[in-house]
From TrEMBL:
Statement: the UniProt record of this protein carries the keyword Acyltransferase: no
Organism encoding this protein: Pseudoxanthomonas taiwanensis
Main localization (coarse): cytoplasm
Family listed: Belongs to the class-III pyridoxal-phosphate-dependent aminotransferase family. BioA subfamily.
Record protein name field: Adenosylmethionine-8-amino-7-oxononanoate aminotransferase
Amino acid sequence: MGGRVHEPRMLADPPPAGTAEAWRARDLAVLWHPCTQMREHPDLLPLVPVERGEGAWLVGRDGRRYLDAVSSWWTNLHGHAEPRIAEAVARQARTLEQVILAGFSHAPAVELAERLLAIAPRQPGRPPLAKVFYADNGSAGVEVALKMAFHWFRNRGEEQRTRFVALENGYHGETLGALAVGDIPLYRRVYAPLLAEALFAPSPDAWLAAPGETPVQRAAYAADRLADLFDRHPGEICAVILEPRLQCAGGMRMHDASYVRRVRELCDAHGAFMIADEIATGFGRTGTMFACEQAGVMPDLLCLSKGLTGGFLPLAAVLATQELYDGFLDDSRERAFLHSHSYTGNPLACAAALASLDIFGTDAVLERNRATAARMATLAAQVGAGSRHVADVRQAGMVVAFELTRDGDRSTPFDPALRIGLRAYRAALERGVLLRPLGDVLYWMPPYCVDEAQLQLLAEATATAISESTSCA
């Protein structure tokens, strides 16, 4: 249909069965990979068949070991094949693997909801989050939160409340509702005709601060523009959605916690809901259990996924206030929240999540992470100082990012045709480290079990990757 047809690559002599090369061939014959231009495989973009995981390591079919510096898309918390979570899943599988959650219940779903509500962010003078709705993944969790916010106002007769406010450079997933409140053109542009129209407020991103402007001042400026947006659309906005403290897919861009407080205040002043997307930032990534805690605020809807199960199984949870929940109680089914997923509250996934939460207690994870983050800061500063092309080194807890620009000049990004990020990815992979840059931003987001030797390897591989990828500039 209007394009060249590419025949499958034929191998004259098939590689021996079971080898890494054999698995690559089998993969490319049948799989369509996510977030990938498949034309780049296998010549430009390496394809790594993985046999198993061990702590912070991924072990390839060829026996090579790769430090998982991105926690397998930010999901893995305590390490691959963590035995306590694996045993919890196995134990649950021998008892109950799945049951419909409409009209039925099971212990793991109830216990997990109780524990999530117990550790959720709180705010003085505000009733705590009170109900948990399960979904299957982060994008689905965002869809749930958006629909709840819109539907709640509709049930009240406020049918003019149809608009969502999101932040420029934000990302909330790739289903159509989540894309509508995202602002990354690479993902959004093609599907724009299918998307609801959101309102976008300036990002509080400290990277965008004007010369001499502090992160706090940048946050205040962005909050003032959000206030202007509310004033221009009185009574139309049902919710503001944001990633607190850290815009992840937008380049690991970070902002001051004061912005999150202002969002809470503005939502209260204008009668709108605050939706906190902590799918990537939750469960200790930014230094506290949830990033909202650093602002001392509680959202009306809290979206969780990724690290929720320690990286073992897909699961999302949306935590809501009692007030929001009560807005759906009625004799009419149309006023009920009828959203569903076949695997809602899957017992295996809930068991994994419970085991992951247990580890936070037994291993003092947050306390240990503080020491690890301090060591990451020292190593990151050394990496940044060693390259003239590093324009910024920033950190939020267990997340470190390196912004690469030509000669470190903030106003001079690299020509996208140079594919600096891809070059860095390949260079790091050659040295046994999995980095997955976001454009020309390299970042570290390792599992919490990462040790000193692994951090040293990470720093050395990153420094080499930066040097080799920018040598063409």
